[in-house]
Design a protein that fits this description.
Blueprint: H1 2-12, H2 15-28, H3 35-41, E1 48-52, H4 58-66, E2 69-74, H5 77-90, E3 95-99, E4 113-119, H6 129-139, E5 140-151, H7 153-156, H8 160-163, E6 180-185, E7 193-200, H9 205-213, E8 217-225, E9 236-239, E10 242-244, E11 255-262
Parallel strand pairs: 1-2, 1-4, 2-3, 4-5
Antiparallel strand pairs: 5-11, 6-7, 8-11, 9-10
Helix pairs in contact: 2-5, 6-9
């Protein structure tokens, strides 16, 4: 799929920058999962975890430190290379990384996991959430769970450049099925780079929930949060790995979390 190949190339342009950025944060002791994720994941002692769309593996390493074993999956060869290098640099041995497109993972990987995890700007790079849901089901042990912390689709509709001025204007159609095309990549962990072409799909809440339910997963909870996972411009840091607008005390969500387990017969 040309869109996926274009995204793959684009993300490879920031792989090395992300490696250096996250290594610096680890060495400074400043890279953490946000408190919502840590609280909702709970104790992962003895758990085997797979992290979908892991980028250069920084959060996979955090998960490995919380559990028994963590495996990160990413479609970008440079991301996987630098993820392995980052783990080696930090002396983390209970982690591994797989190079694979999530849309093809069920054909190439048959291990089962206690926890399937994804977070923070991931699923918009996937064109087919129904296949994503089936992939999660394929990876889960019968008594395992899936957890996601992501940007809220309501917030994703809004013009990010105007939000800093407290102007809420729809820029990205909520029900739009065509991907948004951009010529920039990155920006959350290192400076953005141009000269690429990226494709990002809007997924509604019903798209997300129905993809999981149709795969045989039961929704255990769905939570919404004001805090975002990174500074989208004009935000203030309000906690560990959390940002928000000064005017958003109670106006709208920027993020959500969702947990699923196997549906009962």
């Amino acid at each position: 799929m040309k869109e996926i190949e274009s995204n793959k190339h684009a993300w490879s342009q920031v792989s090395q920058d992300h490696y250096h950025s996250f290594k610096k944060k680890f060495l400074e002791g400043t890279h953490h999962l946000n408190p919502h994720i840590k609280n909702e994941l709970g104790c992962l002692h003895g758990k085997k975890i797979i992290h979908l769309q892991c980028n250069t593996g920084a959060d996979t390493i955090l998960l490995a430190q919380m559990g028994d074993m963590a495996v990160g999956v990413d479609l970008v060869p440079d991301n996987v290379m630098y993820a392995k290098k980052l783990a080696a640099d930090l002396g983390i041995t209970n982690v591994d990384f797989i190079e694979c497109d999530i849309m093809q993972l069920t054909d190439k990987h048959n291990e089962k996991y206690d926890v399937v995890f994804t977070s923070e700007g991931a699923i918009g790079w996937l064109p087919d959430l129904k296949k994503w849901g089936r992939t999660i089901r394929h990876l889960l042990k019968d008594d395992g769970f899936f957890y996601i912390f992501e940007a809220h689709p309501f917030y994703m509709m809004l013009d990010e450049q105007k939000m800093a001025d407290n102007i809420m204007e729809v820029k990205y159609p909520y029900f739009g099925k065509q991907p948004d095309i951009d010529q920039w990549i990155g920006g959350y962990a290192s400076p953005a780079k141009g000269g690429v072409q990226t494709y990002f799909w809007m997924h509604t809440l019903s798209d997300i929930i129905n993809a999981l339910a149709s795969a045989g997963l039961r929704i255990d909870y769905f939570n919404e949060y004001k805090e975002h996972m990174c500074d989208m411009g004009g935000m203030e840091q309000v906690g560990d790995a959390q940002w928000n607008y000064s005017f958003n005390n109670d106006k709208f969500p920027t993020s959500f979390s969702l947990k699923t387990t196997m549906a009962s017969c």
